């Protein structure tokens, strides 16, 4: 099946003027796979009017949106396995995605729209986001290690451009990773105010990818667990604690430049300048056990108060923790508490930009909620900014040891932002 679909994409008309009737006329002979593959080719050349600017996050810029831009409340993230048989076909996918994302993030319909196309063909846009506006949609795209090299094969001539920082994350103590929730050649993180807008974006990008990439895993997140701007209130995670208090915030550009954006890559890695690395971990939380844990123990495990999110050493939510302050039985913030283990003072000064989401996927076979935190962090280098902290947590953080289980994992190189007329990943393919 791979070949005909690729042929459909690789043989795409050079002129954008081809009619959908023509495309589907050809597709009719080749079956539905060809039809949808062809749709992806021509998916975004007719645009409806942009929605009011108030809910639009600019897609174009030096960096991709969806990183330091204000964290929205809803997310749909999907990893893809690339099935394209040529480099050209992969590039055509990234170009089609770029055009589609530029439209979607402005609240525009894809292609000829959800209702205005050929009456005898499936609509270009699936339609469920009609009337919902842009909803602050951001779509952030990244590349997994396997895009560069898979099973010893350099499928797309990218092996020489594999950044050293795009490692296979090591196994951490207690990891219970599921293959079907881990890895992927491409990642697409769609965040929005409205869940249907985020789901619509991923669904339509998957549709455009048909024949060139297929969804490997996906996750819906329903509530943000971080703030990325000082203008945002700190949300709560499913343990009921404020999460994101000490997060890196967009207003602190110096720290963001130091800890998030790649700026000194050179030679074959220069394409990553302006980019970053996304760590994604699906972390199941043992909600039922937590709910039977005393308030004293809950606060001790986190190292902050539940109500205000203030450090147990005193002050308000944004007071710096004082790890030396002693109580009757030792430090007020326990050395094995989560914030102590995660604090930059105990991690060589490193910080990360967390942008995770609460999730629930119903209940497991034992009647327990399959719920937790889909952890996402953006870092300049996971080798310095994630692996040591996660190793320490996996070994010493009582919260992690007793209440958390990592079930999914991924590390992705997120290329720089797109300039008008350019496409996602252009620096990788054209440098
Ligand atoms: C390896 C990195 C981290 C993982 C994994 C992680 C999981 C995780 N965290 C919470 C709840 C909270 N985390 C908080 C702070 C915090 N967490 C990390 C890193 C990881 N967390 C950092 C770097 C920090 C900031 C530390 C600091 O500088 O003080 C907090 C406190 C509030 C806050 O600052 O955000 C909570 C609460 C859960 C529930 C969880 C996995 C499910
Ligand atoms: Fe944390």
Summarize the structure.
Its cofactor is heme b. GO terms for molecular function: peroxidase activity. The chain has 431 residues and is α+β, with helices and mostly antiparallel strands.
What portion of residues belong to β-strands?
A: 15-25%
**What's the total count of β strands?**
12
Q: Could you give the distance between the termini?
A: 32 Å
Choose one word for the global shape.
Answer: globular
Cα gyration radius (Å): 22 Å
Helix content: 25-40%
* Ligands: the ligand C=CC1=C(C)c2cc3[nH]c(cc4nc(cc5[nH]c(cc1n2)c(C)c5CCC(=O)O)C(CCC(=O)O)=C4C)c(C)c3C=C, fe (ii) ion
Structural class: alpha+beta
Give start-end ranges of low-pLDDT stretches: 1-51
Organism: Paeniglutamicibacter kerguelensis
Catalytic activity: heme b + 2 H(+) = protoporphyrin IX + Fe(2+)
Enzyme class: oxidoreductase
Main location: other
Explain this structure to me?
The chain is α+β, with helices and mostly antiparallel strands and 431 residues long. It has helices spanning 2-10, 20-30, 32-41, 87-104, 145-148, 195-209, 253-259, 287-290, 295-302, 338-342, 382-385, 387-396, 398-403, 426-429, and strands at 74-82, 138-144, 186-192, 213-221, 223-224, 276-285, 326-327, 330-331, 353-354, 357-363, 369-379, 404-414. Strands 1, 2, 3, 4, 5, 6, 9, 10, 11 and 12 form a 10-stranded antiparallel β-sheet that branches. The protein has a two-stranded antiparallel sheet with strand order 7-8. Strand 7 (326-327) and strand 8 form a beta hairpin. The protein is globular, with a radius of gyration of 22 Å. The structure holds the ligand C=CC1=C(C)c2cc3[nH]c(cc4nc(cc5[nH]c(cc1n2)c(C)c5CCC(=O)O)C(CCC(=O)O)=C4C)c(C)c3C=C and fe (ii) ion (FE2). Fe (ii) ion binds at residues 338, 342.
């Amino acid at each position: 099946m791979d070949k005909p679909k690729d042929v459909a994409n690789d043989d795409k008309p050079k002129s954008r003027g081809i009619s959908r009737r023509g495309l589907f006329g050809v597709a009719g002979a080749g079956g539905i796979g060809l039809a949808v593959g062809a749709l992806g080719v021509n998916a975004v050349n007719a645009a409806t009017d942009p929605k009011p600017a108030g809910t639009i996050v600019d897609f174009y810029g030096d960096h991709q949106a969806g990183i330091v831009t204000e964290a929205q409340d809803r997310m749909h993230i999907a990893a893809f396995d690339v099935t394209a048989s040529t480099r050209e076909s992969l590039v055509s996918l990234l170009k089609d995605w770029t055009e589609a994302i530029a439209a979607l993030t402005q609240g525009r319909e894809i292609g000829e729209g959800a209702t205005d196309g050929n009456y005898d063909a499936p609509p270009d846009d699936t339609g469920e986001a009609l009337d919902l506006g842009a909803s602050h949609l951001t779509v952030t795209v990244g590349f997994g290690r396997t895009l560069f090299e898979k099973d010893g094969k350099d499928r797309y001539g990218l092996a020489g451009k594999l950044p050293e920082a795009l490692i296979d994350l090591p196994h951490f103590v207690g990891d219970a990773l599921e293959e079907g929730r881990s890895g992927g050649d491409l990642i697409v993180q769609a965040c929005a105010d409205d869940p249907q807008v985020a789901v619509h974006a991923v669904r339509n990008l998957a549709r455009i990818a048909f024949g060139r990439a297929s969804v490997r895993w996906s996750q819906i997140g329903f509530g943000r667990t971080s703030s990325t701007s000082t203008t945002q209130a700190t949300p709560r995670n499913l343990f009921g604690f404020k999460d994101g208090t000490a997060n890196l915030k967009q207003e602190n550009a110096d720290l963001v430049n130091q800890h998030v954006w790649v700026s000194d890559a050179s030679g074959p890695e220069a394409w990553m300048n302006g980019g970053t690395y996304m760590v994604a971990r699906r972390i199941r939380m043992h909600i039922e056990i937590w709910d039977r844990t005393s308030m004293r123990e809950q606060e001790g495990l986190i190292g902050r108060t539940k109500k205000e999110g203030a450090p147990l050493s005193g002050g308000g939510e944004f007071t710096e923790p004082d790890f030396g302050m002693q109580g009757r039985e030792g430090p007020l913030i326990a050395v094995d508490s989560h914030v102590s283990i995660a604090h930059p003072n105990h991690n060589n000064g490193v910080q990360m930009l967390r942008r995770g989401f609460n999730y629930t996927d119903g209940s497991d076979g034992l009647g327990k909620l399959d719920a937790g935190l889909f952890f996402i962090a953006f870092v300049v280098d996971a080798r310095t900014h994630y692996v040591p902290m996660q190793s320490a947590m996996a070994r010493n953080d009582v919260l992690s040891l007793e209440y958390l289980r990592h079930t999914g994992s991924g590390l992705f190189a997120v290329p720089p932002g797109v300039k008008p007329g350019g496409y996602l990943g252009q620096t990788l393919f054209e440098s």
